[in-house]
Amino acid sequence: MLERVEAHLASEGMVVTYGQIDRSDERGFVIHDVQLGPPPDTDGVEISIDTWSIAAIDTEALEVWGIPAFLMMSAEGAVIYPPEPMGPEAQAVFGGDTIRGDLSIDYALDPETGVLTLDHLTVSLHGVATTTVTLSLGNVTVEHLHDGSTANVAINRLGIVFQDHGMMGRLVAALAGEFGGDMEATAQSMIADLNQDFMSSPLRGVRQAHDIINAIAAMIADYQAPGRLSIVAEPVAPVPLDALPIMSDPAPWFEAMNPVTDYDGPTRPGDIPKSR
After folding, report:
1. Hey, which residues does 99 pair with through a beta bridge?
2. Where in the chain are the domains?
3. In 3-state terms, the chain is what percent helix, strand and coil (to 5)?
4. pLDDT band for position 275 (50/70/90)?
5. Of 17, 58, 86, 269, which is the most buried if we count CB atoms within 10 A?
6. At a CB cut-off of 8 Å and minimum separation 6, what does 107 contact?
7. CA distance 224 to 182
C-alpha cells in the first residue's frame, strides 16, 4: 500500500521520504519523520510530518480517478512551510512563518446508495484553533470526486465545530498593534466592522445568518478565552447544490439549510448589540 501511495504522489509531482515504518500492509501504513515536497530545485509547499497514518484507502479509485472513494488518514505533528513569507497578521496568528498542527479525516462513498459520508475532517492548528467538519451528501459518484462537479449532488447534513486555542487573542493583539489602539477597543471595532459588512450583504434578512454573525461577534468579545462555536444544518429535505445560486444569492440556500448555531463562551450572542 505504501508503495502505491508513493507512486501516486510521484505522479502528482510530490516527493516523499520517511524514516521508521511501523506498519505497511494491504490496508495502509504508519510511517514517521515524513518529508513531502516538490522535486529538488522546484518551488512549492514543503510539509514535514512526525507520524503519517493511513488505516484504510481506496487505492483503485486513487489510481484511476486521482482520489480515493474512501479514506481514513491522520497526520500528527505536521509542519507546513509556505513557499512565500506570510504577512505580518498571519505570522502573528500562526506564531511565525510556518503552520503547525494535526489533521484527521475519515470519509467513505457508498457506491450503491450514492451517499458520501464525511465522518469527520479535523484540522487542529497548534496554538490557533481546532475545526471539525462533518458532512453527508447524496447522489455522489466517484466521477464527482474526481472532477469536483456538483451536478445532482445534494446536502443531507453539514456540521462545523470551531474551538479557538489562541487565534482570536493573537489577531486582536496584532490589529491593536497595527492601528495603535488597545485590545478592548480593537475587539469592539472588529465587531462593528463585522456587523456593518453583514448589513450590506445579501444575507442581512436571513435569521439563520444573523445567528452566525452574532455568535462570531460574541467570540470576538471573548477574545481572551473564546468558547466553542457549533453550526449544524440538518435540512428537512436534501438541498441540491447545483439548483441554488449560492454565490450570487446565498439567502435561499441558507434558508433551505436552516443551520442552528450554538456558542458556549462567556459572552452570550444576545448580550452584545445584534446585527439588524
Report:
1. 80
2. 1-84, 101-276
3. 30, 35, 35
4. very low
5. 269
6. 70, 71, 116, 117, 118, 119, 121
7. 13
**Residue-wise pLDDT tens digits, 104-151:** 999 999 999 999 999 999 999 999 999 999 999 999 988 888 888 888
Contacts of 256 (CB under 8 A, 6+ apart): 235, 239, 244
Length of the chain equals 276
Calpha distance 94→100 (Å, rounded)? 8
Average of per-residue pLDDT values in the chain: 91
CA 220 to chain centre: 19
Percent of the chain with pLDDT over 90: 66
pLDDT tens profile 9-19 = 998 889 999 99
- Spell out the residues 6+ positions from residue 152 whose beta carbon is closer than 8 angstroms to its own: 139, 240, 242
Cβ contacts of residue 96 below 8 Å, gap of 6+? none
Q: Which residues of 93-123 are buried (b: 16+ CB within 10 A; e: fewer)?
A: bbeeeebbbbbbbbbbbeeeebebbbeeebb
C-alpha grid cell, residue 46: 514543503
Give alpha helix (H) positions in the chain.
Answer: 2-11, 59-65, 88-94, 142-147, 167-179, 183-199, 207-221, 251-257
Supply the pTM of this predicted model: 0.90
Model pLDDT for residues 235-254, shown as the tens digit of each residue = 999 999 886 677 678 888 88
Note whether 53 and 29 are within 8 A (CB). yes
| Virtual torsion, Cα 194, 197, 202, 204, nearest 10 deg | 50
In sequence order, what are the residues at sequence separation of 6 or more whose Cβ sits closer than 8 angstroms to the Cβ of residue 158?
133, 134, 135, 136, 231, 232, 233, 257, 259
